[in-house]
Amino acid sequence: MERPILIVCIDRDNDLYEKAKVNGPVLGREKNLAAATKLGIADPEDSDVNAIFSAVQLYDKMKSENKNVEIVTLTGDKRLGYEADKKISDQLDKIISELKPSSAVLVSDGASDEEVLPIIKSRIKIDSTRIVTVKQSKELEKTYFILLEKIKDPYYAKIIIGIPALLILMLSTASYLGLGWEVVGIVIGLFLLVRMFNIDEGIANFIKEFKFSAERTSWIGYIAALVFLMIALAIAYQNFNKATIMGLTNEKLVAYIIQGLIWPLLVSFFFIVITKIIDARAEKKVYVITKYTFYGIAAILVAMLLDIGSKWMLNLNPPYVSFGDFLLTIIVALILGYVNSIVLSWMRADIITRMKLEGKEVIALNGSLIGTVVGTDAKDEKIVVQTLIEKKFKIPIAAIQSIDEKITVRWES
Predict the structure, then answer these.
(1) CATH number of this structure's domain 361-409
(2) Which residues make Cβ contacts (< 8 Å) with residue 66, sequence separation at least 6?
(3) What is the phi/psi pair of residue 322, to 5°?
(4) Which residues, in sequence order, are bridge partners of residue 408?
(5) Pick from 252, 246, 338, 260: which is nearest to 294 by CA?
(6) Of 17, 7, 230, which Cα lies nearest the Cα of 99?
Protein backbone atom coordinates (compact mmCIF):
# COMPACT_ATOMS: atom_id res chain seq x y z
CA MET A 1 0.00 0.00 0.00
CA GLU A 2 1.31 3.44 -0.96
CA ARG A 3 2.41 5.51 2.02
CA PRO A 4 0.57 8.85 2.29
CA ILE A 5 1.95 12.36 2.03
CA LEU A 6 1.18 14.18 5.27
CA ILE A 7 -0.02 17.79 5.18
CA VAL A 8 1.01 19.20 8.56
CA CYS A 9 -0.56 22.38 9.93
CA ILE A 10 0.95 23.85 13.11
CA ASP A 11 -0.89 25.68 15.89
CA ARG A 12 2.09 26.28 18.16
CA ASP A 13 0.30 28.44 20.77
CA ASN A 14 -2.66 25.99 20.95
CA ASP A 15 -5.34 28.55 20.02
CA LEU A 16 -7.55 25.65 18.94
CA TYR A 17 -7.93 24.54 22.56
CA GLU A 18 -7.57 27.89 24.30
CA LYS A 19 -10.25 29.57 22.16
CA ALA A 20 -12.36 26.75 20.67
CA LYS A 21 -11.78 23.83 23.10
CA VAL A 22 -10.54 21.53 20.30
CA ASN A 23 -7.88 19.02 21.35
CA GLY A 24 -4.97 18.17 19.08
CA PRO A 25 -3.92 16.40 17.02
CA VAL A 26 -6.78 17.04 14.59
CA LEU A 27 -6.64 14.33 11.91
CA GLY A 28 -8.66 14.25 8.69
CA ARG A 29 -10.27 16.77 6.34
CA GLU A 30 -13.69 16.97 8.01
CA LYS A 31 -12.31 17.35 11.52
CA ASN A 32 -9.91 20.07 10.39
CA LEU A 33 -12.74 21.95 8.67
CA ALA A 34 -14.85 21.68 11.82
CA ALA A 35 -11.93 22.82 14.00
CA ALA A 36 -11.16 25.81 11.75
CA THR A 37 -14.84 26.81 11.77
CA LYS A 38 -15.02 26.65 15.57
CA LEU A 39 -11.84 28.72 15.89
CA GLY A 40 -13.08 31.18 13.29
CA ILE A 41 -16.30 31.71 15.21
CA ALA A 42 -14.38 32.09 18.51
CA ASP A 43 -11.83 34.51 17.02
CA PRO A 44 -12.29 35.52 13.36
CA GLU A 45 -8.96 37.39 13.37
CA ASP A 46 -6.83 34.38 14.40
CA SER A 47 -4.27 33.58 11.69
CA ASP A 48 -4.44 29.85 12.49
CA VAL A 49 -7.90 29.80 10.88
CA ASN A 50 -6.37 30.81 7.54
CA ALA A 51 -3.56 28.28 7.93
CA ILE A 52 -5.95 25.36 8.51
CA PHE A 53 -8.22 26.37 5.61
CA SER A 54 -5.14 26.69 3.42
CA ALA A 55 -4.06 23.18 4.46
CA VAL A 56 -7.52 21.83 3.58
CA GLN A 57 -7.35 23.62 0.22
CA LEU A 58 -3.98 21.99 -0.48
CA TYR A 59 -5.38 18.62 0.60
CA ASP A 60 -8.26 18.93 -1.89
CA LYS A 61 -5.89 19.96 -4.67
CA MET A 62 -3.56 17.00 -4.09
CA LYS A 63 -6.53 14.64 -3.80
CA SER A 64 -7.81 15.85 -7.18
CA GLU A 65 -4.40 14.88 -8.58
CA ASN A 66 -5.00 11.31 -7.30
CA LYS A 67 -2.30 11.54 -4.64
CA ASN A 68 -2.48 9.57 -1.41
CA VAL A 69 -2.59 12.37 1.12
CA GLU A 70 -3.65 12.94 4.74
CA ILE A 71 -4.02 16.14 6.75
CA VAL A 72 -3.31 16.80 10.42
CA THR A 73 -3.12 19.87 12.65
CA LEU A 74 -0.68 19.63 15.54
CA THR A 75 -1.18 21.79 18.63
CA GLY A 76 1.39 23.12 21.08
CA ASP A 77 1.01 25.14 24.26
CA LYS A 78 0.00 28.74 25.03
CA ARG A 79 3.32 29.20 26.89
CA LEU A 80 5.21 28.50 23.65
CA GLY A 81 8.88 27.52 24.02
CA TYR A 82 9.84 24.05 25.20
CA GLU A 83 6.34 23.08 26.37
CA ALA A 84 4.81 23.81 22.96
CA ASP A 85 7.57 22.10 20.99
CA LYS A 86 7.47 18.99 23.21
CA LYS A 87 3.72 18.56 22.70
CA ILE A 88 4.03 19.06 18.95
CA SER A 89 6.87 16.53 18.69
CA ASP A 90 4.93 13.98 20.80
CA GLN A 91 1.84 14.35 18.59
CA LEU A 92 3.92 14.11 15.42
CA ASP A 93 5.66 10.95 16.65
CA LYS A 94 2.28 9.38 17.33
CA ILE A 95 0.89 10.30 13.88
CA ILE A 96 4.02 9.06 12.10
CA SER A 97 3.94 5.75 13.97
CA GLU A 98 0.30 5.19 13.00
CA LEU A 99 0.17 6.54 9.42
CA LYS A 100 3.79 5.91 8.39
CA PRO A 101 3.80 8.80 5.84
CA SER A 102 6.47 8.98 3.13
CA SER A 103 6.94 12.75 3.40
CA ALA A 104 5.25 15.92 4.58
CA VAL A 105 4.12 19.36 3.48
CA LEU A 106 4.26 21.99 6.22
CA VAL A 107 1.58 24.69 6.28
CA SER A 108 2.13 27.55 8.72
CA ASP A 109 0.91 31.06 9.49
CA GLY A 110 4.57 32.00 9.89
CA ALA A 111 4.13 33.70 13.28
CA SER A 112 6.23 31.43 15.49
CA ASP A 113 5.52 28.13 13.80
CA GLU A 114 8.68 28.28 11.68
CA GLU A 115 10.67 27.54 14.83
CA VAL A 116 9.11 24.06 14.78
CA LEU A 117 10.49 23.31 11.31
CA PRO A 118 13.71 21.63 12.62
CA ILE A 119 11.57 19.35 14.81
CA ILE A 120 9.47 18.27 11.81
CA LYS A 121 12.56 17.81 9.61
CA SER A 122 14.23 15.60 12.20
CA ARG A 123 11.35 13.12 11.98
CA ILE A 124 10.13 13.19 8.38
CA LYS A 125 11.21 14.45 4.95
CA ILE A 126 9.71 17.85 4.08
CA ASP A 127 8.66 18.18 0.41
CA SER A 128 7.37 21.72 0.65
CA THR A 129 6.64 24.56 3.06
CA ARG A 130 3.73 26.96 2.65
CA ILE A 131 3.57 30.16 4.72
CA VAL A 132 0.05 31.60 4.88
CA THR A 133 -0.22 35.36 5.42
CA VAL A 134 -3.39 37.37 5.78
CA LYS A 135 -3.72 40.00 3.05
CA GLN A 136 -3.47 43.36 4.78
CA SER A 137 -1.71 46.68 4.58
CA LYS A 138 1.97 46.70 5.48
CA GLU A 139 1.92 50.29 6.63
CA LEU A 140 3.28 51.23 10.02
CA GLU A 141 -0.15 52.38 11.20
CA LYS A 142 -1.55 48.89 10.62
CA THR A 143 1.36 47.32 12.52
CA TYR A 144 0.66 49.70 15.40
CA PHE A 145 -2.96 48.58 15.63
CA ILE A 146 -1.94 44.91 15.44
CA LEU A 147 0.39 45.46 18.40
CA LEU A 148 -2.43 47.12 20.30
CA GLU A 149 -4.64 44.11 19.56
CA LYS A 150 -1.97 41.74 20.88
CA ILE A 151 -1.68 43.71 24.11
CA LYS A 152 -5.39 43.08 24.71
CA ASP A 153 -4.59 39.37 24.88
CA PRO A 154 -3.95 38.56 28.60
CA TYR A 155 -1.07 36.21 27.71
CA TYR A 156 0.89 38.85 25.75
CA ALA A 157 -0.14 41.64 28.13
CA LYS A 158 1.52 39.82 31.05
CA ILE A 159 4.78 39.65 29.09
CA ILE A 160 4.81 43.06 27.38
CA ILE A 161 3.38 45.14 30.25
CA GLY A 162 3.19 42.96 33.36
CA ILE A 163 6.84 41.87 33.71
CA PRO A 164 8.39 45.37 33.18
CA ALA A 165 5.77 46.87 35.52
CA LEU A 166 6.56 44.29 38.21
CA LEU A 167 10.33 44.87 37.92
CA ILE A 168 9.91 48.66 38.17
CA LEU A 169 7.61 48.27 41.20
CA MET A 170 9.96 45.85 42.97
CA LEU A 171 13.11 47.93 42.31
CA SER A 172 11.37 51.15 43.41
CA THR A 173 10.02 49.53 46.61
CA ALA A 174 13.43 48.01 47.45
CA SER A 175 15.14 51.37 46.91
CA TYR A 176 12.54 53.22 49.02
CA LEU A 177 12.96 50.75 51.91
CA GLY A 178 16.75 50.73 51.57
CA LEU A 179 16.87 46.98 50.93
CA GLY A 180 19.09 47.05 47.85
CA TRP A 181 18.72 45.14 44.58
CA GLU A 182 19.71 41.79 46.17
CA VAL A 183 16.20 41.28 47.57
CA VAL A 184 14.72 41.83 44.10
CA GLY A 185 17.23 39.31 42.70
CA ILE A 186 16.14 36.70 45.27
CA VAL A 187 12.45 37.22 44.47
CA ILE A 188 13.06 37.02 40.70
CA GLY A 189 15.21 33.91 41.17
CA LEU A 190 12.49 32.21 43.22
CA PHE A 191 9.89 33.19 40.62
CA LEU A 192 11.98 31.68 37.79
CA LEU A 193 12.47 28.45 39.77
CA VAL A 194 8.73 28.23 40.42
CA ARG A 195 8.00 28.72 36.70
CA MET A 196 10.70 26.27 35.60
CA PHE A 197 9.31 23.43 37.70
CA ASN A 198 5.64 24.43 37.07
CA ILE A 199 5.07 24.74 40.84
CA ASP A 200 2.61 27.56 40.24
CA GLU A 201 0.47 25.34 38.00
CA GLY A 202 0.48 22.58 40.60
CA ILE A 203 -0.72 25.01 43.29
CA ALA A 204 -3.32 26.47 40.90
CA ASN A 205 -4.67 23.00 40.06
CA PHE A 206 -4.82 22.14 43.77
CA ILE A 207 -6.73 25.35 44.54
CA LYS A 208 -9.12 24.70 41.62
CA GLU A 209 -10.30 21.53 43.35
CA PHE A 210 -11.78 23.59 46.18
CA LYS A 211 -15.24 24.49 44.88
CA PHE A 212 -16.48 26.80 47.61
CA SER A 213 -20.20 27.38 47.13
CA ALA A 214 -22.76 28.73 49.57
CA GLU A 215 -25.37 26.59 47.79
CA ARG A 216 -23.75 23.44 49.22
CA THR A 217 -23.58 22.55 52.90
CA SER A 218 -20.01 21.31 52.29
CA TRP A 219 -18.72 24.89 52.66
CA ILE A 220 -19.01 24.38 56.43
CA GLY A 221 -16.20 21.81 56.18
CA TYR A 222 -13.85 24.37 54.63
CA ILE A 223 -14.63 26.87 57.41
CA ALA A 224 -13.95 24.20 60.06
CA ALA A 225 -10.68 23.29 58.31
CA LEU A 226 -9.61 26.94 58.34
CA VAL A 227 -10.44 27.25 62.06
CA PHE A 228 -8.31 24.22 62.96
CA LEU A 229 -5.49 25.49 60.75
CA MET A 230 -5.48 28.75 62.70
CA ILE A 231 -5.52 26.75 65.96
CA ALA A 232 -2.53 24.74 64.73
CA LEU A 233 -0.59 27.92 63.94
CA ALA A 234 -1.42 29.37 67.37
CA ILE A 235 -0.26 26.16 69.10
CA ALA A 236 2.96 26.18 67.02
CA TYR A 237 3.68 29.75 68.18
CA GLN A 238 3.00 28.84 71.83
CA ASN A 239 5.22 25.75 71.57
CA PHE A 240 8.01 27.81 70.05
CA ASN A 241 7.92 30.18 73.04
CA LYS A 242 7.80 27.27 75.51
CA ALA A 243 10.66 25.46 73.79
CA THR A 244 12.76 28.63 73.85
CA ILE A 245 12.16 29.06 77.60
CA MET A 246 13.03 25.37 78.16
CA GLY A 247 16.31 25.88 76.29
CA LEU A 248 15.51 23.49 73.44
CA THR A 249 17.47 24.08 70.23
CA ASN A 250 17.91 22.68 66.74
CA GLU A 251 16.10 19.35 66.12
CA LYS A 252 14.55 19.27 69.61
CA LEU A 253 13.03 22.72 69.03
CA VAL A 254 11.55 21.55 65.72
CA ALA A 255 10.28 18.30 67.29
CA TYR A 256 8.56 20.22 70.12
CA ILE A 257 6.80 22.51 67.62
CA ILE A 258 5.73 19.51 65.50
CA GLN A 259 4.24 17.82 68.59
CA GLY A 260 1.69 20.60 68.90
CA LEU A 261 1.01 20.91 65.17
CA ILE A 262 0.31 17.29 64.19
CA TRP A 263 -3.21 16.63 65.41
CA PRO A 264 -4.84 20.04 64.76
CA LEU A 265 -3.42 19.89 61.22
CA LEU A 266 -4.71 16.33 60.81
CA VAL A 267 -8.20 17.39 61.92
CA SER A 268 -8.06 20.36 59.50
CA PHE A 269 -7.04 18.05 56.65
CA PHE A 270 -9.79 15.58 57.55
CA PHE A 271 -12.44 18.28 57.29
CA ILE A 272 -11.16 19.04 53.78
CA VAL A 273 -11.18 15.33 52.83
CA ILE A 274 -14.71 14.82 54.16
CA THR A 275 -15.86 17.95 52.32
CA LYS A 276 -14.35 16.71 49.06
CA ILE A 277 -16.06 13.32 49.53
CA ILE A 278 -19.42 15.08 50.07
CA ASP A 279 -18.86 17.15 46.89
CA ALA A 280 -17.89 14.02 44.93
CA ARG A 281 -21.10 12.27 45.96
CA ALA A 282 -23.15 15.34 45.03
CA GLU A 283 -21.48 15.42 41.59
CA LYS A 284 -21.98 11.63 41.24
CA LYS A 285 -18.23 11.05 40.91
CA VAL A 286 -18.08 8.04 43.19
CA TYR A 287 -14.71 6.91 41.80
CA VAL A 288 -13.11 10.09 43.22
CA ILE A 289 -14.07 9.08 46.77
CA THR A 290 -11.39 6.37 46.76
CA LYS A 291 -8.74 9.02 46.03
CA TYR A 292 -9.74 11.16 49.01
CA THR A 293 -10.07 8.07 51.23
CA PHE A 294 -6.48 7.22 50.28
CA TYR A 295 -5.39 10.76 51.20
CA GLY A 296 -7.16 10.49 54.57
CA ILE A 297 -5.54 7.16 55.52
CA ALA A 298 -2.15 8.35 54.27
CA ALA A 299 -2.49 11.48 56.44
CA ILE A 300 -3.16 9.33 59.53
CA LEU A 301 -0.07 7.22 58.83
CA VAL A 302 2.10 10.31 58.32
CA ALA A 303 0.75 11.80 61.56
CA MET A 304 1.62 8.56 63.40
CA LEU A 305 5.19 8.69 62.10
CA LEU A 306 5.63 12.39 62.94
CA ASP A 307 4.19 11.84 66.41
CA ILE A 308 6.39 8.87 67.32
CA GLY A 309 9.42 10.45 65.64
CA SER A 310 9.12 13.73 67.54
CA LYS A 311 8.58 11.86 70.83
CA TRP A 312 11.69 9.76 70.21
CA MET A 313 13.75 12.91 69.49
CA LEU A 314 12.46 14.69 72.63
CA ASN A 315 11.99 11.96 75.30
CA LEU A 316 11.33 14.67 77.91
CA ASN A 317 8.86 12.69 80.02
CA PRO A 318 7.99 8.99 80.52
CA PRO A 319 6.94 6.76 78.89
CA TYR A 320 10.13 7.11 76.85
CA VAL A 321 10.20 6.06 73.21
CA SER A 322 13.08 3.89 72.01
CA PHE A 323 14.49 3.77 68.50
CA GLY A 324 13.02 0.25 68.23
CA ASP A 325 9.53 1.66 68.84
CA PHE A 326 10.12 4.29 66.15
CA LEU A 327 11.41 1.68 63.66
CA LEU A 328 8.48 -0.66 64.36
CA THR A 329 6.02 2.19 63.69
CA ILE A 330 7.71 2.93 60.35
CA ILE A 331 7.42 -0.74 59.29
CA VAL A 332 3.74 -0.93 60.35
CA ALA A 333 2.97 2.34 58.53
CA LEU A 334 4.63 1.07 55.33
CA ILE A 335 2.64 -2.18 55.42
CA LEU A 336 -0.65 -0.41 56.13
CA GLY A 337 0.10 2.14 53.41
CA TYR A 338 0.75 -0.60 50.86
CA VAL A 339 -2.43 -2.49 51.77
CA ASN A 340 -4.39 0.78 51.66
CA SER A 341 -3.05 1.51 48.15
CA ILE A 342 -3.85 -1.98 46.81
CA VAL A 343 -7.38 -2.18 48.25
CA LEU A 344 -8.43 1.33 47.20
CA SER A 345 -6.93 0.90 43.70
CA TRP A 346 -9.00 -2.27 43.26
CA MET A 347 -12.15 -0.49 44.49
CA ARG A 348 -11.53 2.44 42.13
CA ALA A 349 -10.99 0.13 39.16
CA ASP A 350 -14.17 -1.79 40.00
CA ILE A 351 -16.21 1.43 40.15
CA ILE A 352 -14.81 2.78 36.86
CA THR A 353 -15.35 -0.47 34.93
CA ARG A 354 -19.03 -0.30 35.89
CA MET A 355 -19.39 3.25 34.49
CA LYS A 356 -20.63 3.97 30.95
CA LEU A 357 -17.45 5.25 29.32
CA GLU A 358 -18.06 4.16 25.72
CA GLY A 359 -17.98 7.06 23.28
CA LYS A 360 -16.05 9.43 25.56
CA GLU A 361 -12.92 11.07 24.12
CA VAL A 362 -9.64 10.29 25.88
CA ILE A 363 -7.06 13.08 26.17
CA ALA A 364 -3.57 13.21 27.68
CA LEU A 365 -2.60 15.61 30.46
CA ASN A 366 -0.99 17.89 27.86
CA GLY A 367 -4.33 18.19 26.02
CA SER A 368 -3.50 15.86 23.12
CA LEU A 369 -6.35 13.73 21.82
CA ILE A 370 -5.57 10.01 22.20
CA GLY A 371 -8.79 8.44 20.93
CA THR A 372 -12.27 7.30 21.95
CA VAL A 373 -13.31 4.66 24.51
CA VAL A 374 -14.89 1.65 22.81
CA GLY A 375 -15.01 -0.72 25.80
CA THR A 376 -13.60 -1.76 29.18
CA ASP A 377 -11.63 -4.81 30.29
CA ALA A 378 -12.61 -5.46 33.92
CA LYS A 379 -10.28 -8.46 34.25
CA ASP A 380 -7.13 -6.52 33.27
CA GLU A 381 -8.46 -3.25 34.79
CA LYS A 382 -8.04 -1.35 31.51
CA ILE A 383 -10.12 0.72 29.11
CA VAL A 384 -10.08 -0.03 25.38
CA VAL A 385 -9.31 3.06 23.27
CA GLN A 386 -9.65 3.48 19.51
CA THR A 387 -7.37 6.03 17.84
CA LEU A 388 -8.20 8.40 15.00
CA ILE A 389 -7.22 5.75 12.44
CA GLU A 390 -9.31 3.07 14.20
CA LYS A 391 -6.37 1.37 15.86
CA LYS A 392 -7.26 -0.16 19.25
CA PHE A 393 -5.13 -0.44 22.38
CA LYS A 394 -5.62 -0.53 26.16
CA ILE A 395 -4.88 2.04 28.86
CA PRO A 396 -4.71 1.02 32.56
CA ILE A 397 -7.53 2.40 34.68
CA ALA A 398 -4.87 3.53 37.16
CA ALA A 399 -3.74 6.10 34.54
CA ILE A 400 -7.14 7.84 34.55
CA GLN A 401 -6.94 11.28 36.20
CA SER A 402 -10.49 12.53 35.75
CA ILE A 403 -13.77 11.57 34.10
CA ASP A 404 -16.11 14.31 32.87
CA GLU A 405 -17.33 14.91 29.32
CA LYS A 406 -13.86 13.69 28.38
CA ILE A 407 -11.50 11.29 30.12
CA THR A 408 -8.09 12.70 31.06
CA VAL A 409 -5.29 10.17 31.45
CA ARG A 410 -1.63 10.18 32.44
CA TRP A 411 -0.35 8.58 29.27
CA GLU A 412 2.54 8.83 26.83
CA SER A 413 2.18 7.02 23.53
Answers:
(1) 2.30.30.240
(2) none
(3) -90, 165
(4) 363, 402
(5) 338
(6) 7
